[in-house]
Specification:
Layout lengths: L10 E5 L11 H5 L2 E18 L4 E17 L5 E5 L3 E7 L4 E3 L15 E2 L2 E7 L6 H9 L11 E7 L1 E8 L9 E13 L2 E8 L7 E2 L4 E10 L3 E10 L17 E10 L22 E8 L4 E10 L2 E13 L4 H12 L13 E4 L4 E3 L4 E6 L6 E7 L2 H6 L5 E5 L3 E4 L15 E9 L13 E5 L5 E4 L4 E4 L5 E4 L6 E7 L2 H6 L5 E2 L3 E2 L9 E10 L2 E3 L4 E5 L3 H7 L1
Parallel strand pairs: 21-27, 29-36
Antiparallel strand pairs: 1-12, 2-3, 3-10, 4-7, 4-11, 5-6, 5-11, 8-9, 11-19, 12-18, 13-14, 14-15, 15-17, 16-18, 20-22, 22-25, 23-24, 23-26, 26-27, 28-30, 30-33, 31-32, 31-34, 34-35, 34-36
Amino acid sequence: MKRSHRIYIITVAVLVLCPPTARTKSKMKIADLFEVSLNSVKYDTSTSYIRTSQERRKQVIEQLRFFCDVNIADPKLVLGTSRKGIITQAKSDKSTIIDINGKELPRSRSFTDRYSSLRYSKKFVPPKKPAKWKIELRRILKLPPLKTPRPQWLYELAPSRLTLELDSGLFEPDSEKISRIEGYFHVLMAESFENVDIPFKPTEEWVRITREYEIKVLVAQTTESRFNYHIESRPKEIGLTGRISPDANLPERFVAKHQLIGKDGKPIRSHHNTANPRLPGSGSGVGGGSGSNLGNIKKFRFVIAVNPKHHTIPFVLEEIALPGRDAAVNDEKMARAAPRSGRKAQAIPYTPTGPISGTINRQTWMNLSWKPGSGADSYDVYLGESFEDVNDGVYGTFHGNQTERALIVGFVGFPYPDGLVPGETYYWRVDEVDNSKSNSPRKGKVRSFSIAPRTAFNPSPADGAKSVDPNVTLRWTEGLKANLHTVYFGDDSETVTNAANGKPQSRETFTPGTLKPGKTYYWRVDEFHVPDTYKGKVWSFTVNETAESKKNSD
């Protein structure tokens, strides 16, 4: 008996993003890619209590916190930058040189340093207007006017955030500035990237992507107008879990991003395609997505970071003006005056004002808006069609950092310029950025809204309902922008499914007359919006079986 084997072909392409000489750059050369600049400085005080066998002693710690921006000249191989830096030496305006020697201030366990993925902001580029002479020439020649070019969105690399901390007690009380600070931070970089391609179709077996990571495609559907997929993943051995810290052991390879590849062999334009490598999340789980108007998809592409390494990047800051200490004293007084409930005071998060989460909306555009929380300087806004992508902040769902408390979507010149898709559910999230906090941004809750479908929905009685009144009136919610409704009704499912050429009506109700007790009926509503008809789903219900009908059936 012959045994059949299913073979999966994995195409591997090596993507080297720098010449061979660049991969042997010294640390100093790599450091030249990064420039650290100061954003703001503040005093920060915290109170703790030290218990001994004889007393309980209060300890007030005053820190100087420096909030910096890290600009990256070439991000192609950069996977992430550390959130905090280490100060090694500082010089006050009194010419006192203080050697920190890498000693760090006490801090909570939640402030464990980890790498953060690179941040991108979305920039609107208006279309270029055609020259006046071209317009005039076409008018004279009686040619049709030039088509107005569509606006473009460009993703620009935003500075990474870096926080430094220094014991203010190391300086003279009357110091007005710090002449010089030296230190370092960490960067995670790959030596190169590899592409692993697999066909866009379900797989019956697990497919190896890296030594630690394999996937199984559960669903993969694609047409010219729609696509949908669902992937399950798992680690074969213990690999990376959660975010990576600068002291973590790194595997030889890990998945930095995934893309969807079209029939032309190029990544398709989709928010599921991450244009820049990002850090891995959890080591196992599921993921998926859906979209429209992207053309047929031929392959999944997993981009593998090869030989990732930690790099130490030195920096120098000079002539740093120090703020007054009054702000820190006031913060301490407010903290003491706050009610002691046994829990730490929490910053007040933002409050969404529209749309309400879970609602179905009857237009193909939306105004996402919110009320500000406490201490927010700006907002990172995420929007997409996958809960997992928005929750994880996958590149492509990030639609920029802004100070405005609203974002219009579904119009030309804004996210989703072709309009939101009827019948689709969208997920959105707002993170509040507070430049004075080391744990900024504060991650927001993922909320959702849906666009009404073109077909009729929300039937009454509900699909599959039992014990329905024999004199029932059928009702439904009309599809998006529907002008007329055609109802098909009967006791045979196949007949109702195939029915056509019915009489349209304007009302959203239908009364079939008195129905037979205990019998199951089927009905369908087709929606008409010039010039298209949208065939509805077949619903059913069963009429209440009265005592008389039960007696007759016995």
